[in-house]
Amino acid sequence: MGERGKDDEMKHRRTNLEPLEPRAETPERQNPMDRPTAPQKPEARLGREVQARIGQQLRAMYNDVVSQGVPDHLADLVRRLGDQDTE
Amino acid sequence: MADEASPEASPMKLDPAIRDQILATVPSLRAFAISLSGNIDRADDLVQETLLRALAHIDSFQPGTNMPAWLFTILRNLFRSEYRKRRREVEDADGRYAETLKSHPEQTGRVEFEEFRTALAKLPADQREALILVGASGFSYDDAAAICGCAVGTIKSRVNRARTRLADLLAIDGVDDFGPDRATRAVLAGGGRG
Fold it and tell me: Is-above-0.90 flag for pTM?
């Protein structure tokens, strides 16, 4: 874990951009290309809200599909192939 | 009747319990496939191909282990080999995300939802899949790492970067609600619909 990564980490903490998961093991973040480019001003205040919204929308999008269940043609496929010997 | 297959090999009927596990995973496999490909037709092709492979190689599944993780791994590998061939098309997915799903009118703000999808499409594929596996599919970091064939720390890193990047993309809209970015994205998101 690089020392520079640590510095970035502290900045993030202060700006509330702390994601839902601990940031401890983030080897890839040492790459300077990965540093967030947004200025840490008014957006930072929104960090937590935005993170919560990301989680909600991600699950909403996903569950929207999950709730469609198993399309008939896929169910048929599994049953048909399951009933005969697999190739 | 011709015995083209070796007659000794007793027909390998699929254990109904295994079959049910597969069927139970199909809905989330589809959700994962759509999130990866951004295209519902390709997603269904991917799922179908995944199921064919899984059933053809069901021997290599160890009963009692994680069926969803096994199927997701197959699908992800299929997508990756496809993706290499069709990179340009996938990069072009932004506009298609809006078209991907049309069945969520009840969402808090349709435009917002489509903005989210557009932002998600802008993430590098590595980050997007990690975020979805952990944040939506509900896999542990360990399972997600196994599915993606990488270290757990790498998955954590990708998830964090995905979140940060999405926050950046979406925060613009929170600060400057009526700015040109929002307008532009609303147009993009509504692109196919007229």
Answer: no
- Taking the CA of residue A34 and the nearest CA in chain B, the distance in Å comes to 8
Mean pLDDT, each 10-residue run in order, chain B (194 residues): 44 82 95 88 92 93 92 95 64 47 52 83 93 96 97 96 89 48 54 42
Residue found under tokens 């896929």: A74
Which residue on chain B is closest to A44 by alpha carbon?
B171
Asked if ipTM goes beyond 0.90, one says no
Closest Cα in chain B to A84: B13
Contact A60 B113 (CB under 8 A): yes
- The pLDDT of residue B13: 78
Nearest to B165 by CA among A13, A27, A56, A29: A29
- Asked if B32 and B75 count as a contact pair (C-beta separation under 8 A), the reply is yes
- Ramachandran region, residue B9 (left: φ > 0; alpha: ψ -120 to 50; beta: rest): beta
Q: Does A38 touch chain B (CB under 8 A)?
A: yes
Query: Which residues in chain A are contacts of B134 at CB distance < 8 A?
Result: 21
